[in-house]
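Appendix B, example 12.
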Amino acid sequence: MPVYNAPLLSIDAAEARRYAGLQKAADFNEGKILEACEDTRLLAKPRGIWEIYDYDCETQTINANPPCPLQGKKIGQHLAGCEKVIALSATVGEDIEEDITRRFSSGEYSSAVLMDAAATAAVEQLADGMEKAISPKMAAQGFLLKWRFSPGYGDWPLEQQPELIRLAKAEQIGVRLTTSMMLTPRKSITALIGLYRKQENSTAEHSPQGCAACTQKNCPSRRK
């Protein structure tokens, strides 16, 4: 049950711009985006946690206690060839969310939207950092990592979020679920990462990732 507490030294302004849907707004004030990123960084309380489990491809089952059968074809296809999975969760905390709410309430709409986008970039950046920290540890055991896959992607139902919370032990870093299956704090994620041996799945690293694997072609945050 490793815990990840590395600080966010900066937040990628280009990613914040993308999450705000401003890729095509070439004349938008870049200073406002940078300010939102810095405000977010100062309020962030980055925390992450993960756990490793054996995985049965044939039955799409994570061998936890109790076991967790995964629902949906997409997650099964994504984890094909994997011997193990990592269940992880990451959050940048509640303070950012409270400040975003305060800005909306006081009519600072542009500022709130930019901060919301910067916070999304921050939590994704945190998860990327976790993957970079995990990767060499797994490589030493002969494993490579597939890209992370979260409930709600493809046909993997959000109703399995409680299982991800349980498997990742996310409550230990303050991540919980609302009755509508939304994560709280809102700027949090859960995900699975498949672990495979290269000689058994030599083409896995070439599979579509992120936006390339998503069917929402008209998403304003979509990467080109």
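The two ends are 36 Å apart (CA to CA). The mean pLDDT is 90.
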